[in-house]
């Protein structure tokens, strides 16, 4: 049935800035936005949603998550609060290694069930497009298992899901050279040939892969037609962002230690900077990305949840928007664009999702707030009233 969402206080189209239309309506037919703006039509035969006192915005695009995993790390959280840092915990066999152990042991069905429930909860928070990384498998078999889980989520979920092969940390008990060889000669070729992922990502940092190793990994992935991402300059300066510019990565993510010259290089190469404020908050990091330079250079910045069991257990994008404002001092407009339009750009999907216009697939959320500044401000509330994906209501509070 066609849907008419009537008289929203504000519609944020994300065209030319956040592109506000006041007192606008949206008509959705066969999954597509047919009309958008101020118009009046008969509601006969239509499913009508009254959006007075509401804001409509594009469905949130969460362009960086690790949502397939087994092995929660609440014990590590408690240690961290007492003062033990993330890297010390990692060296003691906690951290990523703990999740790897549990993810390796879990079956496809167990991982699928865990992830499916997480996606259900994300939908209630307005996410309509989500990127999901592998990376807790490490062994070839377990990485492929994770990607199989993501493929099944893609088939069975109503969301647009983007699969990324993440080369996360070196394997334990194998020489670095041998493991790198396995990645370059077996894992990447198999994932590429079977098209199990659209992106390849690498954790380029002092507890993971060096810049040279990262370059080898990403270059190999590109040979197999994978688009590229990188976890760059998160724990220390590695030059990962500079590498992203050189290789033409679609996005470079985290960027806490990225230098100004590297930001210029990213701009030139059109690499989308992706910031993860939930992680800074969850890990209580003092270091902040250089938001001011991104702003001065007029670079569109994506924000994402980084949802994962170690460094950010938050997947709710309206709250990530709030944290982008509170932790990174992004403006409300920058944060909202980051969670929609630029998130889509970070997935090379800007043509399809992340903004609202006539003729596009109808991915949008109706929020129970009467203006957009309320979105981060009402931080503690669950403000999503309806989530609509491809013109279908996939979540709704009673109208
Ligand atoms: Zn990540």
TrEMBL record:
Binding site for Fe(3+): 64, 66, 231, 306
Co-factor binding details: Binds 1 zinc or iron ion per subunit.
Domain Amidohydrolase-related: start-end pairs: 55-393
EC number annotated for this UniProt entry: 3.5.2.7
Pathways per UniProt: Amino-acid degradation; L-histidine degradation into L-glutamate; N-formimidoyl-L-glutamate from L-histidine: step 3/3
Subcellular localization: Cytoplasm
Molecular-function annotations in GO: imidazolonepropionase activity; iron ion binding; zinc ion binding
Name of the protein: Imidazolonepropionase
Organism of provenance: candidate division WOR-3 bacterium 4484_100
């Amino acid at each position: 049935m066609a849907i008419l969402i009537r008289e929203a206080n504000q519609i944020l189209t994300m065209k030319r800035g956040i592109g506000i239309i006041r007192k606008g309506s949206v008509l959705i037919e066969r999954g597509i936005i047919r009309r958008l703006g101020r118009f009046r039509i008969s509601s006969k035969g239509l499913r009508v949603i009254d959006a007075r006192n509401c804001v409509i915005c594009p469905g949130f695009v969460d362009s960086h998550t690790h949502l397939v995993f087994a092995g929660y790390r609440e014990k590590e959280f408690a240690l961290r609060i007492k003062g033990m840092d993330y890297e010390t915990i990692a060296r003691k066999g906690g951290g990523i290694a703990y999740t790897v152990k549990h993810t390796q042991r879990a079956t496809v069905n167990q991982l699928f069930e865990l992830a499916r429930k997480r996606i259900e909860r994300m939908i209630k928070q307005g996410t309509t497009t989500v990127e999901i990384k592998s990376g807790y498998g490490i062994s070839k078999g377990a990485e492929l298992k994770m990607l199989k889980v993501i493929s099944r989520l893609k088939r069975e979920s109503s969301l647009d899901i983007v699969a990324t092969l993440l080369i996360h940390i070196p394997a334990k008990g194998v020489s670095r050279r041998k493991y790198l060889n396995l990645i370059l000669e077996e894992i990447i070729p198999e994932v590429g040939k079977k098209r199990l992922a659209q992106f390849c990502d690498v954790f380029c940092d002092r507890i993971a892969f060096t810049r040279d190793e990262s370059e080898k990994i990403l270059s190999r992935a590109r040979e197999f037609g994978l688009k590229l991402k990188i976890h760059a300059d998160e724990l220390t300066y590695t030059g990962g962002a500079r590498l992203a510019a050189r290789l033409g990565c679609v996005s470079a993510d985290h960027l806490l230690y990225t230098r100004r010259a590297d930001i210029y290089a990213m701009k030139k190469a059109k690499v989308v900077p992706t910031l993860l404020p939930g992680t800074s908050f969850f890990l209580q990091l003092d270091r902040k990305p250089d938001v001011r330079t991104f702003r001065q250079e007029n670079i569109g910045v994506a924000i994402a949840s980084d949802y994962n069991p170690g460094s950010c257990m938050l997947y709710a994008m309206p709250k990530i928007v709030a944290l982008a404002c509170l932790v990174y001092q992004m403006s409300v407009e920058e944060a909202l664009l980051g969670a929609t339009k630029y998130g889509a750009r970070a997935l090379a999907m800007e043509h399809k999702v992340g903004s609202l216009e006539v003729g596009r697939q109808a991915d949008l959320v109706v929020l129970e707030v009467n203006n957009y500044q309320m979105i981060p401000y009402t931080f503690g509330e669950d403000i999503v009233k309806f989530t609509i994906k491809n013109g279908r209501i996939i979540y709704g509070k009673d109208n």
